[in-house]
Amino acid sequence: MTDTAANFIARSTVKAEDLDHRKKINFNIGRYNAVVPQGKQQFAELTLARERAKNIKWRAIETLDKQLEEFESVFTSRGGRVIWAENTDQALEEILAICKEKGCRSIVKSKSMVTEEIKLNHFLEENGIESVETDLGEYIQQLDGEPPYHIVTPAMHKSKEDVAKLFYEKLHTRPGLTPEQLTLVAREKLRKKYVQAEIGITGANFIISDIGGIAITENEGNARLSASFPKTHIVIAGLEKVIPTLTDLGLFWPLLATYGTGQRITVYNTVITGPRQPGEADGPDEMILILLDNGRTNILANARSRESLYCIRCGACLNACPVYKNIGGHAYGTTYSGPIGSVITPHLKDMQEWKHLSYASSLCGNCTEVCAVKINLHELLLENRHEAVEDGYSTLAERIAWKVWRKASLSRPLMNMGTQQLKNWLVGKAFKAWTAHRDALDFAPKTFNERWRTERPKG
Q: What value, to the nearest 5°, has the Cα angle with vertex 247 and ends 244 and 252?
């Protein structure tokens, strides 16, 4: 077992027994579950909408090279600049070079999972540059020194009392502030940062190929301010974010809103096609898009796992997953948690080190059922398990155990052999990992086959 797997087991064991944590998560996900059905009512044919979205993403990913080249051509014609980054180090080097060129001391940053993936805030801090999260949830997590807990709602694991206590400790506010008061405190602190920052950094919900633009959808307006107030706007996005046309947003924005937060549409929806043009009143002087690979082409090259690149980061699979709801987002130890994280992380990083995430699933299929773009997530988790075994990453003991189990389960005489006590002892010893955190297996005194033979009336 790798250290990564051991850490995951340790963290998940602790969290699974934390009843206060479970209460907060179930409360917040319960509120999500209450509003999502209302958002879905805007679709006359929801299944058809999801199927069309999947087909659009299929076309985008299958022609990814052409889509990105078209985007770059149009985007650069309006004064934008595209930087292709193969990995984290290249992306960080490019960002630091831009910061030095601009004499940057302060950055405002909107919510972006890709910047969490490359650990941008930590890198900037090491280089003496202040980076301030402007999304309220991300700001709370930054104050607490924690990474995001959830793809969409970064501070989902915190109650309003937890946030009030954090603000009291870090910002010296009065104790026991209400959520409304806490929001006003954050707003007052953050508004000053927009006018001070030399650079604004955002992610992109979608990269629109035909118009050479990016689309950002949000509820607080902080991404708009981060993109328009500073003189330089840097966008960092994974290369899989592309969609072919502007009209595709008519489908993707409502889907993302409904499956992400239960809204019909989010509050602020912005399309940005480059830096400020002649005659325009606002916007940055310079706009730079960093297209990040960082293992995504590994998934692209894998025909069976490729559909995981269709993900629009709505977070619905996390909210539906019984494992996530018990162990939480931080237990996974990686940027992308829940079912989608378990699918893509072994490919983005290292299969041997991260294959354990593919087993952090009951395979109930609920993640696939709720996916906005109908990704077969539970089947991809099985595919990861298969790939890990094919690549030789399973242990000798594991291979022997499954061979014995296969031979026994395919043989009726072997299944009927032995007493109930012998079977309980044998399986309990052979599968210690199962009984370590569960009740001991208890076989029936007789198998169904034996009961059928003795109790079925003859005639």
A: 80
Closest CA to 314 of 113, 23, 140: 113
Residue 269 near residue 246, CB atoms below 8 Å: no
Find the CATH number of the domain harbouring 374.
Answer: 1.10.1060
**DSSP state letter for 248:** G
H or E, element range at 49? helix 46-62
pLDDT for the residue numbered 456: 82
> Is 331 strand, coil or helix?
helix
Q: Which of 254, 274, 294 is the last residue of a domain?
A: 294
56 in any annotated domain: no
Helix runs in 242-329, H state only:
249-261, 296-301, 316-320, 324-327
Looking at the structure, tell me whether residues 220 and 344 fall in a common domain: no
The pLDDT mean for the chain works out to 94
Same domain? 342 vs 390: yes
- Per the structure, the count of domains in the chain is 3
224 and 192 within one domain: yes
15 near 323, Cβ under 8 Å?
no
Q: Can you give the pLDDT at residue 422?
A: 86
Q: How far apart are CA 316 and CA 369, in angstroms?
A: 10
Which tens digit of pLDDT belongs to each residue from 360-377?
999 999 999 999 999 999
- Euclidean distance between CA atoms 399 and 84, whole angstroms: 42
Burial code of 341-370, b = ≥16 C-beta within 10 A, e = fewer?
Answer: bbbbbbbbbebeebbbbbebbeeeebbbeb
Mean of the pLDDT values across residues 104-116?
A: 97
pLDDT of residue 415: 86
User: For residue 284, what are the domain limits?
Assistant: 65-294
Residue 52 falls within a domain, yes or no? Answer: no
In order of 85, 122, 132, 149, 367, the CA distances from 125 in angstroms are 21, 5, 10, 21, 37
Q: Are residues 276 and 218 in the same domain?
A: yes
* Predicted structure pTM score: 0.91
* pLDDT higher than 60, residue 346: yes
Distance in angstroms (rounded) separating the CA atoms of residues 265 and 256: 8
Give the pLDDT mean for 254-259: 98
Comparing 69-83, 140-154, 437-451, the range with the smallest average pLDDT is 437-451
pLDDT score of 459? 55
Last residue of a domain, one of 359, 394, 429: 394
In tens, the pLDDT along 166-216 reads: 999 999 999 999 999 999 999 999 999 999 999 999 999 999 999 999 999
